[in-house]
Amino acid sequence: MTERTELEITGETPTTVLVGSGLLGELPALLGGRVRRVLVIHPRALRNTGEGVREELAAAGFEAVSAEIPDAEEAKHLQVAGFCWQILGQSDFTRTDAIVNVGGGAVTDVGGFVAATWLRGIRYINIPTTVLGMIDAAVGGKTAINTSEGKNLVGAFHAPAGVLIDTQTLTTLPDNELFTGLAEAAKCGFIADPAILDLIEEHPREELARHDSPVLREIIERSVRVKADIVSSDFRESGTREFLNYGHTLAHAIERQERYQWRHGAAVAVGMVFAGELSTLLRSLDPAVVDRMRSILAKLGLPVGYRGDRWPQLLETMRRDKKARGTILRFVLLDAVGSPVVTEVPDDAILFSAYQEIGEQSPTTRLGPVSL
Ligand code: GLY
Asked: What residues pair up with 307 in beta bridges, in sequence order?
């Protein structure tokens, strides 16, 4: 038996989260005794991993079939969901059967959506294979696909029965994916658990990037704990779950501005510094915390500024964001490390002042994040 940590997300639909290395053998128990058929959804790039999971399930006595779907954001299409529904239908999946999603955030988003909609909701397990997926997308039950009008516009809250976070799956993850994923860990550090920040500061980059590093494991585990605690008390995002969106209001606008060529974590890093600057102007945040934010994110190789000339477009996009309520923008801000607060900001001049602190003159800085 490998050493592993078990976390429980309580509330409307409980989730068991296992964190460790070499955890695949835990999958049958997570699926539970009533499940007979399992659909393993995996992207093209993870054919071998997905097939390994399917074989493991077949050896354990399940009727296991697989669905290979496109990589990354290409997976989050209605046609891909339709393809999975077709396999479920042809294989006679009932309400007591299940889905296992193996992959990054896009796979767990669309696979979770398929599970949420098949027969009005069946059991599913996520096996995230990226740091971003482990820390954020695979945990918490937000499932979605994109439409031509925007990202994540169609979806459902439907929590996985289990999440198997196996750090062995990170062996082949490129460093840039790993570090951009750690932006969400830094976010968890600033909104709730400063020990994550200490871990990033105290250890060399190379140690953070090793899939078998105990430090990386602890950062992942602590971040998942932050998310699990928040989701346990506010599954449907009617209150504190919004704190998880720290840095995301500007980040979504930057992603759109960059036609989704930036990694999510890179955009979140810039958005965090912007929200930090805004917090010094509107709340009681000590500017030293924003300096610390810049230094931690820069250590991870993440951008901390964006094109100064793009403010009008970013402001316009933020206003159209599906999460905006009316025309007044809402931001998650910080009063201090570990003390987030949701604040409406009606004054464009203050937003612009904060943006001036992160706006960059030189277009050359744009190249960095693109390669992230
Ligand atoms: N990604 C933010 C949330 O799950 O609420």
From this structure: 360
Give the residue carrying structure tokens 């790039």.
45
Q: Decide whether any atom of ligand 1 lies within 6 Å of the 184 Cβ.
A: no
Q: What percent of the chain has pLDDT over 90?
A: 91
Report all structural domains of the chain as residue ranges with CATH numbers, in order of start: 5-170 (3.40.50.1970), 175-370 (1.20.1090.10)
Q: Judge if the beta carbon of residue 140 lies within 6 A of ligand 1.
A: yes
The protein residue with its alpha carbon nearest to ligand 1, atom 1, reads 136
Q: What pLDDT is attached to residue 322?
A: 62
- Judge whether 76 counts as a catalytic residue: no
- Alpha carbon separation from 293 to 65, 206, 222, 338 (Å, rounded): 45, 20, 18, 13
* Number of Cβ atoms within 10 Å of the Cβ of 205: 12
Task: Say if CB 163 and CB 138 are below 8 A apart.
Answer: yes
Locate the ligand 1 atom nearest the alpha carbon of residue 184 and give its number.
1
Cβ–ligand 1 distance for 307 under 6 Å, the answer no
Residues 76, 252, 256, 330: which is the catalytic one? 252
Confidence of residue 311 (pLDDT cuts 50, 70, 90): very high
Alpha helices in the chain, H assignment, sequence order = 27-31, 47-59, 78-90, 105-117, 131-132, 175-191, 194-202, 205-209, 214-233, 248-257, 264-282, 287-299, 311-320, 348-356, 367-371
Which atom of ligand 1 is nearest to 245's Cα?
A: 2
| pLDDT single digits (tens) 230-285 | 999 999 999 999 999 999 999 999 999 999 999 999 999 999 999 999 999 999 99
Q: 């999460």: which residue's tokens?
A: 323
CA distance 10 to 294: 34
**Cα(191) to centroid(ligand 1), Å:** 13
Among residues 262, 218, 223, the alpha carbon closest in space to that of 246 is found at 223
- What number of residues does the chain have? 372
pLDDT surpassing 50 at residue 370:
no
Residue 149, pLDDT above cutoff 80: yes
Is residue 146 within 8 A of residue 199, CB to CB? The reply is no
The bridge status of strand 4-9 relative to strand 15-20 is: antiparallel
Give Cα 53 distance to the centre of its chain.
22
